[in-house]
User: What shape does this take?
Amino acid sequence: MDNSHALQELWKPTCFTDELSNICKPETRFNLGTWITDWTTRTRDQTNKLLKNSFKLSIMKHKGHISLLRPTTTKHDVPVLFQEPHVETGFRHPHQPWFYYICSIFQKHNECMNVWTHLIGLLLTVSRTIEFSNEYDLIGNPHMWPLSAGLITMILMYLCSTCAHCFSHKSELVHYTGFMIDYAGIGIFGLGSTIIHYAYCIHDTMLNSSLKMLSVPIGVILGALVCICCTVSKVFYKRPYPFTRKIWQIGSVGGIYTWLSLPILHRLFLDKDGEDVSLYHHTSQMIWFALAGFFFGSDIPQRFFPGKFDFVGHSHQIFHICIILVTQKQLDGVHLDIEKYHRTPAFVDEPSFMETFGAVISLTIVCFLNVFIFHNVVKYRLGKENVKQE
Assistant: This one.
């Protein structure tokens, strides 16, 4: 039996055809909630069957014999690059087929929750985007372009992070490149948040200020610095990473976060009576961001209990959850500000394409060039290291 035929045998979409036939019966009263629950259960069972049988399925690659999905291993069996401080087990095998890493999102390993947390964040953001599109004309109305640009950057951030963690153990080159793309997503999202905050969350007294006029150009520069600095911290530092590496990351991210938060901080300073309702949400997202930074830089709780949080409860997972709460509270606050924004002088001036989508495209090009350059730097360095080992 060849591989394609084996996969077909392992995954027969009977759950879809059975359900569709039941729905089409005239005597059947269709209940969407029941159908979704039943469909999810059947799909999960089919997936479990696929993963269970995939241990028996093998793929011939060159002269090697590589299992489609293999049990995880300890840190001693993977390259130093893939190892994490205070994480002992749950490592996926490198140099497996791409499909192995896609299937591994249903497997228990130490990156699984990192993948799922930001995959859930991605789905939540898409859901919020649909809600906004039902309420506003996100494309036809230029006044909604800042919101549209910001939502696109948020989706990109979650997508880049999800893919980076999903394929992080494929190879050393893929690991480096994946996280370069992850850092690009963070920088682009920083610009998107800058565009949103200076468009909708700014106080009337700042409308004609230099900060407002320079907000997007400076946001592009700071977003590019996030991508470059975080990439440098990844490429030119080796495990075990020194604290200096975190300074490169936290410093660059903290810089753009401070810049995008200035309109909020200005309103907090002026709101003496506490009547600005949306500031509750903005303050909440700032608190969650501070907590995210704490868990990102502290390695708590696994620092005190090595090997106990390899699968669930790792600080990076908590960091991801905090980021989800940051973006959700941010959108809650922005939504209220947009309603207020329609009644302020800010609504008179239409945002331009270059202040919104154009800025995002420009930064994306810069980030792509950064990834391309450093990808080749890493590729060259790894090639030299392999020659030395031979």
